[in-house]
């Protein structure tokens, strides 16, 4: 159990930290696009398209890191006042009823979406027309990494129920 938790947490931490550097690339592209459009009146197709693709890539690949670092929205009116054991029970129920079914359907839909995109070697509809099938693949990868992190968080919840203590990695 500890090995699986550590492995998944380490993987998603490394990915999350590596992705953080892409923000700087995105910043430069958006800055270039804004200056080009506002000051020179020459917007670029590639700047807009690349910026939304990079932002989507960051968003999709960052799901799991956000879950690991407790950055997702959480309604904790009762949760924060509960003991670790009760928090673990609430987490287990939440993961079984909401998280894993959502991930199942997300993985299923993103798999079909990705396969179709690769089958037709899909490209953007713009005049720049970059390939979008690698970009769409990140949706599937993001859901898979989120699934792995969900397993890690589920195991941490089991640990809380068993020991009555928070899991410390």
UniProtKB/TrEMBL annotation:
Keyword Secreted: no
InterPro entries: DctQ, TRAP_DctQ
Pfam family, one: DctQ
Topological type in the membrane: Multi-pass membrane protein
Main location: membrane
Signal peptide: none
UniProt keyword Glycoprotein present: no
Gene Ontology cellular-component terms listed: plasma membrane
UniProt keyword annotations, A-Z: Cell inner membrane, Cell membrane, Membrane, Transmembrane, Transmembrane helix, Transport
Tripartite ATP-independent periplasmic transporters DctQ component domain mapped to chain residues: 26-157
Protein localization: Cell inner membrane
Transmembrane segments: 12-32, 44-67, 88-107, 139-159
Family under the similarity heading: Belongs to the TRAP transporter small permease family.
Name of the protein in question: Tripartite ATP-independent periplasmic transporter DctQ component
Organism phylogeny: Bacteria, Pseudomonadati, Deferribacterota, Deferribacteres, Deferribacterales
């Amino acid at each position: 159990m500890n090995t699986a938790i550590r492995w998944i947490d380490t993987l998603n931490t490394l990915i999350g930290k590596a992705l953080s550097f892409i923000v700087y690339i995105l910043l430069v592209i958006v800055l270039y696009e804004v200056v080009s459009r506002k000051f020179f009146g020459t917007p670029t197709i590639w700047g807009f398209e690349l910026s939304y693709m990079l932002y989507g890539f960051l968003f999709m690949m960052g799901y799991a890191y956000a879950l690991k670092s407790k950055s997702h929205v959480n309604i904790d009116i009762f949760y924060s006042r509960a003991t670790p054991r009760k928090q673990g029970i609430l987490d287990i129920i939440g993961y079984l009823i909401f998280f894993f079914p959502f991930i199942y359907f997300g993985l299923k839909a993103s798999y079909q979406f990705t396969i179709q995109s690769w089958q037709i070697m899909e490209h953007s509809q713009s005049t720049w027309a970059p390939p979008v099938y690698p970009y769409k693949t990140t949706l599937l990868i993001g859901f898979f990494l989120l699934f792995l992190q969900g397993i890690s968080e589920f195991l941490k919840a089991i640990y809380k129920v068993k020991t009555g203590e928070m899991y410390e990695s």
